[in-house]
Amino acid sequence: MATFAAERLQMVHLSSGDLLREAVRQQNAVGRQARRFMERGTLVPDRLVVRFILERLQGLGSDRPVVLDGFPRTVEQAVRLDEMLTEEGHRPIDLAIDFEISEETVVKRLVGRKVCSRCGANYHVVTLPPRESDLCDRCGASLSARADDELQTIRKRLKSYREETSGLLEFYRSQGKLRLLSGEPAIEEQYQSLVRLLQEERLA
Ligand code: AMP
After folding, report:
1. Cβ atoms within 10 A of the Cβ of 41, count?
2. pLDDT tens string for the chain (204 positions)?
3. Three-class DSSP category at 171
4. Contact predicate 73/168, CB 8 Å
5. What number does the ligand 1 atom closest to the CA of 70 have?
6. DSSP state of 162
7. Distinct helix (H) and strand (E) counts, the chain
8. Does ligand 1 have an atom closer than 6 angstroms to the CB of 71?
9. Is 116 helix (H, G, I), strand (E, B) or coil?
């Protein structure tokens, strides 16, 4: 959803998962350490992730709005993000949007997900198939399942969400920044709800 919305709204999309997967492919210092956590479906420790992602954010050099996807995932990450934005004189986080979704739907979506090896576009074998089997509509590169979209790993990722990420909801709620949308409908309907929300908030 974040990739889809950022592209349509001409915002910069920064996905911590994409950046970490790239680091793993490059086998750089962060990638070598992050890999085992990602394969297991647990969060990469804050001490590795925070600096890595904040440096990417600082290096964006764009004045377009940024959609942060998958970061922050712990309260510690959120605090460090706020500190960095304040210290560097950037605009604070406008909103945190939680797309509420049942675990059953998450499992169905992730088990059928296919991702483009070049541009990162997401597809689903049933609900959003590419025009040509296993080829990306946007750039023509091959599609494959993510290694961590295997059922057992998905269950662990859900567990880490419940244990470590759900606390973020209270963090942003207490700042008056949390907004809830349903992640259950098809992507186009979710997108329309998101646009309505951003218009109400005068952010689009
Ligand atoms: P994602 O692409 O957002 O589903 O992330 C894939 C994997 O990358 C997660 O299961 C984690 O292992 C790791 N990861 C991504 N973002 C973070 C983050 N903010 N903090 C810790 N680990 C992360």
Report:
1. 19
2. 898 999 999 999 999 999 999 999 999 999 999 999 999 999 999 999 999 999 999 999 888 999 999 999 999 999 999 999 999 999 999 999 999 999 999 999 999 999 998 888 899 999 899 999 999 999 999 999 999 999 999 999 999 999 999 999 999 999 999 999 999 999 999 999 999 999 999 998
3. helix
4. yes
5. 3
6. I
7. 9, 7
8. yes
9. strand
Determine if ligand 1 sits within 6 Å of the CB of residue 115: no
CA distances from 150 to 104, 107, 154 (A): 14, 9, 6
CB 14 within 8 A of CB 57: yes
Token digits of residue 152: 């057992």
Of 57, 142, 121, the C-alpha closest to 91 is 57
- Which pTM value belongs to this model? 0.92
- Report the length, in residues, of the chain: 204
DSSP state of 101: -
- Do residues 46 and 74 touch, judged by C-beta distance below 8 A? yes
**What would the two tokens of residue 44 be?**
């990469």
If DSSP codes are grouped into helix, strand and coil, which group holds residue 45?
coil
Q: Output the DSSP codes for 4-33.
A: HHHHHTT-EEEEHHHHHHHHHHHT-HHHHH
Distance 200 CA to ligand 1 centre (A): 30
Total Cβ atoms within 10 A of residue 124: 16
Extract the tokens encoding 40: 């297991």
Burial class of residue 129 in the structure, from the number of CB atoms within 10 Å of its CB (0-12 exposed, 13-18 middle, 19+ buried): middle
